[in-house]
Amino acid sequence: MSILFVKKNNTVQTVEKDEFTKYLNEETLPALEQHDPFEWWRVNKIHYPRLAKLAQKYLSIPATSVPSERLFSDAGNLITRDRNRLSPHLVNQIMFLKRNKKYMNILD
To answer: Which of 23, 36, 38, 58 has the most crowded Cβ, counting Cβ within 10 A?
Structure first.
């Protein structure tokens, strides 16, 4: 439970805000198989601002290790016995460009 203290006319009022309990007492929560959780949190972030920030942060984490495995594989293909003197900064830039090339229109 979080407590917010508001000072008004030299008096302190206590306002209880318990988003978590309010969320748990929600009558109808969407089934993940039928609804997009990102969309639900976008619509309900007005009611649960702190929980919505947490959901946005943690729902964006991939459920598998495939992206990291691909990254290590790409790095292994880039840094070879013949190319072992590349600076870490240059390797980071090359990997960034490789992973984001679909979002860039360099040659258009």
So the answer is: 23
Kindly state whether residues 51 and 27 are assigned to the same domain: yes
Largest CA distance in the chain: 73
Q: Do 44 and 70 fall into the same domain?
A: no
pLDDT in tens, 16-35: 357 888 888 887 766 766 77
Does residue 72 form part of some domain? yes
Distance CA 40, CA 44 (A): 6
Which residue segment(s) compose the domain that 35 sits in? 20-61
Instruction: Using the predicted structure, report yes or no on whether residue 89 has a pLDDT greater than 90.
Output: yes
Whole-angstrom CA distances from 32 to 7, 44, 66 are 42, 15, 22
